[in-house]
């Protein structure tokens, strides 16, 4: 069928985003909704190679230091003002460095950012940083209207409540606790686009309710964790729905058991290896995540640049685990307990809770007794970031490039108390630090790959964390809609080319 | 009711004192928890550096000493301002006001259904006491009383939405249907049926049991004998004499529970994705959105107090012995 | 006062109450012997996940991780009863002490205690319980504490009422005129006489506490180290459509237990309150 | 249903000989005049587990027009059950009429349809209950409650009904009937409520009025008015009145005929003069002998030594109904009270309900603190003493309470109850228990009673236990607050005798509080009359009763029912021979 204008799409959003100003908040739901309102300079395909967005073309100098972007010329903000390089400069030099921690780190690498004309922007780096090209996706560097924010208190700007972007959809109405209504941007710079007239994001707090809503056709799309893994198999059978796990290549999360190296006997890599051997990650994937995901071989997600496919993942081996513990001198006591550890599952839903329960039982088999601790999100963040834990579960996004999303977990200069998603384990290996630092500024792809391969081998032997799965998120989309998941950004895309099949 | 004004004034003073105590108590309680909203936002953003968290703290006023925060908070509440949710970037009152109608609609409907249904069923059971209809009502009431409310909700969804497809299962209205006027009302009512029934069922059971017990108590009283001695019809004795007296304790309990329905609706709002205050409260707990949480506590306490005052007023209407004021 | 045989006769006249007692006895036996009946930990993944009831080796089926539902119910009985009993005990301790003081001393003491009680009654109690558990992180202790904290005010009011009316009863005045101390009067004279209604409401409160715990678990605020019925329903509600048995059986266990406790409460009420017992039912 | 009201124009007293004759041979009544009610072999059975199988057994009597039939008998004898059966008001379903018939003007009420019975109820047969406080619906205006009756049984329109309500209220002697009809019951006094009940009963001009102890809950003065009201209305309308009471004074005052019941059986029936003055059945004789006699001829008390207790200018004001931000009503319960009690003296405190008798008694034992004044015990002021300082005096001053059912802790054994006081004062538990047994014997119970619980005793026995408890402390002063008001007359006599006996034996002083002047006359050396918190007259019994000085005292004495009737001397002699605890049944 040919794309035709018209139609309304209902998408689940859960939890409800706190706000839609993407520069100020980058929670998952915010990205999914605001990704239709705001835009970045680039977007990325499934291989994570850049695609044009607000920038229609770009060049990188051979020394890897100068990035020049050409902007589309007829782009307008939702309030009718033209989008120019002034807005890019404002966003990348003032707004984002002030409020967006990832962008702050990326643009801090620039020696200068300049705009030779209204539609050209030039980034000059202090030293080579090949990952820089992957820092321009809508959530990493959303473009913010300078005319509304220049010279204001960004966080308390009244415009935050009425986001103005350049995207194909505009915010019409937000009934808190109920739905967010986006309407077609009639002045979108690509003629004829978007196709859809309306997008409703519906807040449905209960997981079972979400599955039913999808099934009954009340909503057309779910993403990320909206559908609990056990519902996935059933929903896959529903005739009216398409199922995919694509579109998450950019975030590419890897989950793991985060281990506090400051606590004995967790500081001993034999102990961590024993844990690795004690658990059956296939079981975890199949029975807890219901087949969603792949066993992670090491720190890199296989879709992240620099992944080394030659690494063999650990396999369950209770004898090896016991041998390692014996070697450490941890003998079972009368009850068969060699050591007791506290596990605080991530409070992000029931699946993680189930995982905690599974781990408790598995580790019991090798003589490690586990006490489960429970927290809520706030308590969890506080305790993990302040190193007040023994073992927890966690996952992070890799943002396409090891320099953007992997190294932060393992390098020792990122051991920062009070900061979440840093090296909260307290793992420190000079070799690893060195390899990550060198690889980040290596322009030669082959050399870079070699360094990344080596760092992966070192890490897999050190087991700073016990990797679990390369996580996959299920996306269900009603078969009525086409062109939905097209890039590595997936559901956070602008949906400019999504269209409704004529019945 | 000449005494109404001083009565209300007295109650107001008392209410203010209680509310003040509640504000302080809640504030301290909530702040006793580990973690703060800045932490949560940092956690949910997926990446955060120290500057980010610091900025948030400063913006939320979390870097000030606790007693100062308390003073500030009490001060603003005294001015009728429930504060600002930085997390949600909106004034707390706006957030609550958005959700309040849905919750009120749910809880008040459930309340009315429960009260009317409960009193009717209880009366029916009491006047047929010892017969099968009494036993049936008693058993059903007991079951409703003993079943977890969320379980009832899930079962109803399974039956009426999934299997039979008669009623919508989630939300407040059909989103984007563009309905207006009566159609919209009908749509909302259809959405209301299951949650109201779920929430109301439990309370209906409570009131039915209370009414029954109360009638059995009252029907042995002397004045009922007097009414019989007058040669009145049984129906007149039941409705004109017994029920009116028997209903007093039900009113008292209902008055207390009416105010507490907001709390009870958390579960129902979760199961039915009802965009109400209970759900807002639960989310606020998890997100440590202090300002919102305190606001909800405040509003629901006010509800309880209002309900109590209303109960007392109703009581004086029904029972001439209680005088509003001297 | 009734003799104990009279008590049992009055109690046994209520058939529902006998039924309730029977069920609760079964639950208690289940709780006591859960370790013998199901020696494996209820968390143990003993079988394939999602086995329906009556399949081999799993009488009531297995859950999403292949844990035995029957084992969970047996072990969960322990937790549910424990939470119910302990939190009721704590609530009784707080409520009856405060109520007794308020009712016995009256005046300023009464006023202060009742205002304090009112404060707790003004905050919607389920919200308060949720907040308390969330804040102090879910564990059996925090759950018990939260349930007790939201449950004591009615008991305090009840005890106060009883003490208030008993305080002016002549046998209490006689105790005062014979020079007995306040403590003796409270504990020896008044308390035993106020016990009947308190026992009745306590038995009902156990039921309410079990329900409350299950509701907290439903919201994911249960103790992660303890198998409880509330947890089982809460964990299984999401798969209710694929696997009805996972939430059905523990739900049924809650329902039956709560129902039985209510029936027992009614039976006790009939037996301890002879005026009501005579009434037709 | 049964046609028009048939008036019997003969004057009340004139019909007496006729009925007197009929009582001898009931069958002859039918020929002379048709009885209104003819009860034949009425048997009412009680449910299993009750104290006896039948509430009423094989009861036969008639009620004629234009007469007052008094039904007497002790508590539980089946008086109320008879009345309720007549009205069709037996507590369904467990109490049932299982035998006999009840004819109203010749029609058997028990075989009538429910509709017919309803028309009878409140229309032809009306009833007044004992407890005026609870017999009216608290939530309905009294006028409406009366009107309801009219609505059911007459075809009057609204205005006519309203007029009739006012007329009825006027008839029963209520002030401001128009306003009063719009009042709620709680605003009326007990006497007023009982008048409303009577108005309600009279609303449809019934043929039969059944009054179940209508004055028992009222003060003597009020009782007098109500009795007069009932008698005048009865005479005016020639009704048949069945008047249930246990008070022989009341019987002597109003009865034409008397029926005596015991344990559900009718033991004697006959004209009032005959039953009162020449009772034949031993039970009737026993009852009459127990009636407290108006003036006992006792020796004057001679005061000796210093006053044991002296109350000086005691004042007590209660604030009722006050609250937060509200001022309540003030009730004066003690107004400048002065009173002395000498060793060995019994001072009687009499007066009507609410006059402040208990307040004074309780102030003396330290259960209540007056606002001002002094209470000197052996010269030491008890007021203003702290709890701890008061404690030594507890041994000297003890109290006996009114309600034998409420004054003993139901959860403690009798022995414990008696010994708790001494134990609290440091006595050895075993010794105290031994002493308790001795005391039980002293008050006429078996020592083994110590091992039983209070509920295993009758009212009279419990009151003995209460007395033993007070005595266990070896008091010198006993405050007895209406110690016999809750007891049946025969038991009352026994307890009074016991008190009198003990006080002589132990040389106790006593403050005896009662509202029954006849009782006071029997035991007190000195009488103090109280009214609205004030002692209006105080003096030796003989002079207060024989030559009352204060107007109010005279009113009180005047209100005592049945003064004209003297208990037959032979029965008084019999009474002297009664031993404590003995009972002819
Ligand atoms: N509702 C009832 N159920 C069972 N037995 C009853 C009931 N009411 C009264 N009785 C019993 O019936 C008998 C007669 O009671 P009734 O009330 O007629 O006595 P009474 O002569 O009116 O006594 P009183 O002077 O105390 O009013 C008593 O033995 C009493 O215990
Ligand atoms: N604790 C109290 N609080 C308020 N008012 C009281 C209290 N006790 C007694 N009164 C009032 O004081 C007045 C005198 O009461 P008191 O009990 O002394 O009367 P009484 O002469 O013993 O009457 P009765 O014969 O009814 O026992 C009454 O009007 C009563 O309502
Ligand atoms: Mg009676
Ligand atoms: Mg008194
Ligand atoms: Ni005798």
From TrEMBL, chain B:
Key words of the record: Cell membrane, Membrane, Transmembrane, Transmembrane helix, Transport
Pfam families: BPD_transp_1, BPD_transp_1_N
Transmembrane stretches, start-end: 12-33, 104-127, 139-168, 188-208, 246-272, 292-318
Biological-process GO terms, alphabetical: transmembrane transport
Record-linked PROSITE patterns: ABC_TM1
Superkingdom, taxonomy of origin: Bacteria
Domain ABC transmembrane type-1: 100-315
Entry's localization field: Cell membrane
InterPro entries the UniProt entry points to: BPD_transp_1_N (IPR045621), MetI-like (IPR000515), MetI-like_sf (IPR035906)
One annotated Gene Ontology cellular component of this protein: plasma membrane
Membrane topology: Multi-pass membrane protein
Family membership noted in the UniProt record: Belongs to the binding-protein-dependent transport system permease family.
Protein name: Peptide/nickel transport system permease protein
Native organism: Novispirillum itersonii (Aquaspirillum itersonii)
Lineage of producing organism: Bacteria, Pseudomonadati, Pseudomonadota, Alphaproteobacteria, Rhodospirillales
Automatic annotation (TrEMBL), chain C:
GO CC annotations, alphabetized: plasma membrane
Domain of life per record: Bacteria
Compartments it resides in: Cell membrane
Organism: Novispirillum itersonii (Aquaspirillum itersonii)
Keywords tagged on the record: Cell membrane, Membrane, Peptide transport, Protein transport, Transmembrane, Transmembrane helix, Transport
Residues covered by the ABC transmembrane type-1 domain: 77-265
Transmembrane regions listed in the UniProt entry: 17-38, 81-106, 126-150, 197-222, 243-264
Protein name: Peptide/nickel transport system permease protein
InterPro entries linked to this entry: BP-dependent_transpt_permease, MetI-like, MetI-like_sf, OppC_N
Keyword Protein transport: yes
Protein topology in the membrane: Multi-pass membrane protein
SUPFAM superfamilies: MetI-like (SSF161098)
Gene Ontology biological process terms in this record: peptide transport; protein transport; transmembrane transport
One Pfam family from the record: BPD_transp_1
Family listed: Belongs to the binding-protein-dependent transport system permease family.
Keyword Transmembrane annotated: yes
Automatic annotation (TrEMBL), chain D:
Record region (Disordered): 1-29
Residue ranges of every copy of the ABC transporter domain listed in the record: 37-288, 309-557
Keywords, ordered alphabetically: ATP-binding, Cell membrane, Membrane, Nucleotide-binding, Transport
Organism per entry: Novispirillum itersonii (Aquaspirillum itersonii)
N-terminal signal peptide: none
Name of the featured protein: Peptide/nickel transport system ATP-binding protein
Taxonomic classification: Bacteria, Pseudomonadati, Pseudomonadota, Alphaproteobacteria, Rhodospirillales
Gene Ontology terms: cellular component: plasma membrane
Bilayer topology annotation: Peripheral membrane protein
Primary location group: membrane
Entry GO MF terms: ATP binding; ATP hydrolysis activity
Keyword Disulfide bond: no
Location in the cell: Cell inner membrane
Xref: InterPro entries: AAA+_ATPase, ABC_Ni/Peptide_Import, ABC_transporter-like_ATP-bd, ABC_transporter-like_CS, Oligopep_ABC_C, P-loop_NTPase
Domain of life where this protein originates: Bacteria
């Amino acid at each position: 069928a040919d794309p035709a204008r018209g139609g309304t799409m209902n998408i689940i959003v859960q939890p409800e985003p706190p706000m839609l100003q993407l520069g100020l908040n980058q929670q998952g739901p915010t990205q999914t909704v605001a990704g239709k309102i705001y835009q970045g300079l680039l977007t990325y395909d499934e291989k994570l190679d850049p695609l044009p967005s607000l920038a229609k073309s770009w060049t990188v100098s051979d020394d890897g230091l100068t990035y020049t972007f050409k902007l589309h010329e007829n782009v307008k903000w939702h309030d009718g003002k033209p989008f120019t390089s002034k807005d890019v400069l404002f966003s990348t030099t003032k707004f984002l460095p002030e409020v967006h921690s990832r962008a702050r780190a990326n643009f801090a690498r620039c020696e200068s950012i300049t705009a030779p004309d209204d539609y050209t922007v030039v980034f000059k780096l202090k030293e080579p940083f090949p990952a820089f090209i992957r820092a321009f996706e809508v959530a990493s560097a959303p473009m913010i209207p300078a005319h509304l924010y220049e010279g204001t208190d960004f966080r308390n700007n009244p415009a935050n409540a009425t986001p103005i972007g350049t995207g194909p959809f505009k915010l019409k109405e937000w009934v808190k606790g109920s739905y967010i209504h986006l309407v077609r941007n009639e002045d979108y710079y690509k003629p004829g686009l978007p196709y859809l007239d309306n997008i409703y994001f519906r807040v449905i707090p209960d997981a079972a309710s979400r599955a039913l809503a999808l099934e009954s056709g009340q909503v057309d799309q779910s993403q990320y964790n909206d559908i609990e893994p056990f519902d996935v198999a059933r929903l896959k059978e529903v005739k009216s729905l398409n199922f995919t796990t694509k579109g998450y290549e950019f975030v590419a999360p890897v989950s793991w058991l985060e281990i506090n190296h400051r606590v004995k006997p967790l500081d001993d890599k034999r102990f961590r290896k024993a844990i690795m051997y004690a658990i059956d990650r296939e079981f975890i994937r199949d029975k807890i995540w219901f087949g969603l995901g792949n066993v992670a071989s090491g720190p890199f997600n296989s879709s992240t640049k620099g992944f080394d496919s030659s690494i063999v993942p650990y396999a369950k081996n209770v004898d090896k685990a016991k041998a390692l513990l014996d070697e450490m001198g941890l003998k079972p006591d009368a009850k068969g307990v060699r050591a007791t550890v506290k596990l605080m599952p991530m409070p992000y839903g029931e699946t993680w809770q189930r995982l905690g329960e599974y781990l408790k039982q598995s580790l019991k088999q090798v003589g490690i007794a586990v006490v489960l601790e429970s927290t809520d999100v706030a308590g969890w963040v506080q305790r993990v970031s302040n190193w007040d834990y023994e073992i927890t579960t966690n996952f992070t996004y890799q943002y396409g490039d090891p320099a953007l999303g992997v190294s932060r977990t393992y390098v020792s200069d990122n051991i920062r108390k009070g900061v979440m998603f840093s090296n909260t384990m307290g793992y420190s290996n000079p070799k690893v630090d060195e390899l990550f630092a060198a690889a980040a500024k290596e322009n030669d792809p082959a050399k870079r790959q070699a360094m990344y391969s080596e760092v992966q081998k070192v890490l897999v032997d050190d087991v700073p964390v016990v990797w679990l799965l390369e996580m996959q998120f299920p996306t269900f989309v009603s078969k009525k809609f086409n062109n939905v998941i097209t890039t590595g950004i997936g559901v956070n895309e602008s949906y400019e080319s999504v269209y409704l099949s004529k019945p | 009711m000449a005494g109404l004004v001083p009565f209300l004034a007295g109650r107001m003073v008392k209410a203010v004192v209680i509310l003040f105590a509640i504000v302080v108590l809640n504030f301290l309680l909530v702040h006793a928890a580990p973690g703060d909203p800045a932490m949560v936002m940092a956690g949910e953003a997926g990446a955060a550096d120290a500057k980010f968290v610091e900025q948030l703290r400063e913006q939320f006023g979390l870097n000030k000493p606790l007693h100062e925060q308390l003073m500030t908070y009490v001060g603003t509440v005294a001015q009728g301002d429930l504060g600002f949710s930085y997390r949600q970037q909106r004034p707390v009152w706006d957030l609550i006001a958005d959700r309040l109608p849905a919750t009120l609609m749910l809880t008040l409907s459930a309340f009315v259904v429960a009260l009317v249904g409960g009193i009717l069923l209880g009366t029916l059971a009491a006047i047929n006491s010892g017969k099968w209809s009494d036993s049936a009502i008693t058993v059903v009431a007991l079951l409703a009383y003993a079943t977890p409310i969320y379980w009832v909700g899930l079962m109803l969804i399974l039956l009426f939405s999934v299997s039979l497809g008669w009623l919508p299962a989630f939300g407040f209205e059909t989103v984007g249907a563009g309905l207006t006027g009566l159609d919209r009302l009908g749509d909302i009512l259809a959405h209301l049926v299951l949650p109201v029934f779920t929430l109301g069922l439990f309370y209906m059971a409570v009131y039915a049991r209370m009414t029954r017990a109360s009638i059995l108590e009252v029907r042995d009283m002397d004045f009922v004998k007097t009414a019989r001695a007058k040669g009145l019809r049984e129906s007149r004795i039941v409705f004109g004499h017994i029920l009116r007296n028997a209903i007093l304790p039900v009113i008292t309990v209902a008055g207390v529970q009416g105010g507490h329905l907001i709390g009870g609706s958390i579960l129902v709002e979760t199961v039915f994705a009802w965009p109400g205050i209970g759900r807002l409260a639960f989310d606020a707990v998890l997100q440590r959105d202090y300002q919102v949480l305190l606001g909800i506590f405040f509003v629901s306490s006010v509800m309880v107090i209002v309900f109590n005052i209303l109960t007392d007023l109703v009581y004086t209407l029904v029972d001439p012995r209680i005088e509003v004021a001297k | 006062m009734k003799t104990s045989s009279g008590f049992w006769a009055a109690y046994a006249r209520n058939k529902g109450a006998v039924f309730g007692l029977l069920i609760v006895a079964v639950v208690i036996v289940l709780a006591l012997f859960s370790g013998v009946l199901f020696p494996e930990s209820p968390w143990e993944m003993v079988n394939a996940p999602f086995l329906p009831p009556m399949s081999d080796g799993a009488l009531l089926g297995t859950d999403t991780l292949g844990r035995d539902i029957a084992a969970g119910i047996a072990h969960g009985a322990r937790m549910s009863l424990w939470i119910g009993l302990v939190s009721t005990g704590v609530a009784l301790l707080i409520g009856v002490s405060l109520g007794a003081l308020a009712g016995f001393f009256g005046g300023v003491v009464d006023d202060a205690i009742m205002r304090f009680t009112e404060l707790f009654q003004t905050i919607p109690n389920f919200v308060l319980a949720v907040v308390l558990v969330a804040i102090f992180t879910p564990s059996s202790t925090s759950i018990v504490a939260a349930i007790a904290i939201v449950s004591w005010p009615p008991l305090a009011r009840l005890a106060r009422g009883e003490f208030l009316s008993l305080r002016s009863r002549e046998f209490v005045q006689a105790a005062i005129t014979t020079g007995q101390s306040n403590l003796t009067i409270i504990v020896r004279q008044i308390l035993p006489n106020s016990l009947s209604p308190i026992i009745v409401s306590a038995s009902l409160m156990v039921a309410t506490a079990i329900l409350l715990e299950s509701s907290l678990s439903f919201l994911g605020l249960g103790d992660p180290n303890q198998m409880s019925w509330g947890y089982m329903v809460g964990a299984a509600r999401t798969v209710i459509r694929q696997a009805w048995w996972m939430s059905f059986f523990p739900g049924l266990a809650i329902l039956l237990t709560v129902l039985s406790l209510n029936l027992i409460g009614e039976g006790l009420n009939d037996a301890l309150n002879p005026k009501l017992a005579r009434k037709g039912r | 249903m049964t046609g028009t009201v048939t008036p019997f124009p003969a004057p009340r007293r004139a019909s007496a000989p006729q009925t007197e004759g009929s009582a001898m041979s009931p069958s002859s009544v039918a020929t002379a005049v048709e009885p209104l009610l003819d009860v034949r072999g009425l048997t009412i059975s009680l449910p299993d587990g009750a104290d006896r199988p039948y509430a009423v057994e094989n009861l036969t009597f008639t009620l004629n027009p234009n007469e007052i039939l008094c039904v007497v008998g002790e508590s539980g004898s089946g008086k109320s059950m008879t009345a309720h059966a007549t009205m069709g008001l037996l507590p369904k379903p467990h109490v049932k009429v299982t035998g006999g018939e009840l004819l109203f003007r010749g029609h058997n009420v028990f075989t009538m349809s429910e509709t017919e019975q309803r028309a009878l109820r409140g229309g032809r047969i009306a009833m007044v209950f004992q407890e005026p406080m609870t017999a009216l619906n608290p939530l309905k205006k009294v006028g409406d409650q009366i009107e309801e009756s009219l609505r059911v049984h007459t075809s009057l329109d609204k205005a006519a009904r309203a007029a009739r309500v006012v007329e009825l209220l006027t008839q029963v002697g209520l002030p401001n009937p128009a306003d009063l009809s719009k009042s709620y019951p709680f605003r009326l006094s007990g006497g007023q409520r009982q008048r409303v009940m009577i108005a309600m009963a009279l609303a449809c001009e019934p043929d039969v009025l059944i009054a179940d102890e209508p004055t028992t809950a009222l003060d003597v003065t009020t009782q007098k008015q109500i009795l007069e009201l009932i008698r005048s209305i009865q005479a005016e309308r020639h009704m048949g009145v069945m008047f249930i009471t246990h008070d022989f004074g009341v019987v002597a005052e109003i009865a034409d005929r008397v029926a005596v019941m015991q344990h559900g059986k009718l033991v004697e029936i006959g004209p009032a003069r005959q039953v009162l003055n020449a009772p034949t059945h031993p039970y009737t004789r026993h009852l009459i002998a127990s009636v407290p006699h108006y003036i006992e001829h006792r020796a004057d008390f001679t005061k000796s030594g210093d006053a044991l207790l002296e109350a000086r200018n005691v004042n007590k004001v209660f604030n009722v109904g006050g609250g937060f931000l509200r001022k309540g009503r003030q009730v004066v319960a003690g107004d400048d009270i002065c009173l002395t009690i000498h060793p060995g003296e019994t001072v009687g405190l009499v007066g009507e309900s609410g006059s402040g008798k208990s307040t004074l008694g309780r102030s003396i034992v330290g259960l209540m603190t007056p606002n001002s004044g002094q209470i000197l015990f052996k010269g030491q002021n008890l007021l203003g003493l702290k709890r701890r300082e008061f404690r030594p005096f507890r041994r000297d001053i003890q109290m006996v309470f009114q309600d034998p059912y409420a004054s003993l802790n139901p959860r403690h054994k009798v022995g414990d109850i008696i010994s708790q006081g001494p134990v609290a004062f440091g006595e050895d538990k075993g010794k105290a228990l031994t002493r308790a047994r001795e005391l039980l014997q002293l008050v006429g119970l078996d020592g083994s009673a110590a091992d039983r619980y209070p509920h295993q005793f009758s009212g009279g026995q419990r009151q003995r236990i209460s007395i033993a408890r007070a005595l266990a402390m070896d008091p010198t002063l006993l405050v007895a607050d209406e110690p016999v008001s809750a007891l049946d007359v025969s038991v009352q006599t026994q307890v009074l005798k016991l008190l009198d006996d003990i006080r002589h034996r132990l040389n106790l002083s006593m403050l005896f509080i009662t509202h029954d002047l006849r009782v006071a006359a029997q035991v007190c050396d000195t009488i103090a009359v109280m009214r609205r918190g004030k002692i209006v007259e105080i003096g030796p019994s003989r002079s207060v009763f024989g030559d009352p000085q204060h107007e109010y005292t005279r009113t009180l004495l005047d209100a005592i029912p049945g003064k004209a009737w003297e208990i037959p001397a032979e029965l008084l002699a019999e009474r002297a021979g009664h031993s404590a605890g003995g009972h002819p049944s």
